[in-house]
Amino acid sequence: MPTEDAGKRNTQRETGELRRDKNSCPTTSGSLGLDLAASVDCVLHTNLPQRIPTNVYGPIKINGNPVGALLLGHSSSTMKGLFVLPGVIDADYQGEIQIMVTAIVPPIQIKKHQRIAQLLPFPALTNGHEPAVANQRTGGFGSTGDTLADVKN
């Protein structure tokens, strides 16, 4: 049984012709998130964080509407010693979505089309609020703009 089918019921396994665009798709009809796969073969030789390209670009749209998403790791990735650092993808992000990973015990090989992370989509909850920054987004990893709210104990 292929590793990507482990833990699935027969009714949940993909059937028919293989898809070519498997870098971002739900695994089953009941999946909460979208699987993200590596778009290149690579080997992690150290435990330093590294970015893995996906060839998937924002904005993420569900039913034609842009949504934000939480990027989380697959539990199967963790079982193989690969830790996916969680992240937030904003609804207006337009670059390539990359997966930040670290090897718990290197070396770890990641194969092209290997599903290692998942996106959990969320609607933009800040609609109707005036943006703190009027400029367009200019970066990938990290926050954009000044502090909007300072929460203190």
TrEMBL record:
Residues 1-23 have a biased composition (Basic and acidic residues). Residues 1-28, 134-153 are annotated as: Disordered. CDD domains: trimeric_dUTPase. Keywords: Aspartyl protease, Hydrolase, Protease. One of its GO terms (biological process) is proteolysis. It holds the Pfam family dUTPase. One of its GO terms (molecular function) is aspartic-type endopeptidase activity. This is Uncharacterized protein. The lineage of its organism: Eukaryota, Metazoa, Chordata, Craniata, Vertebrata.
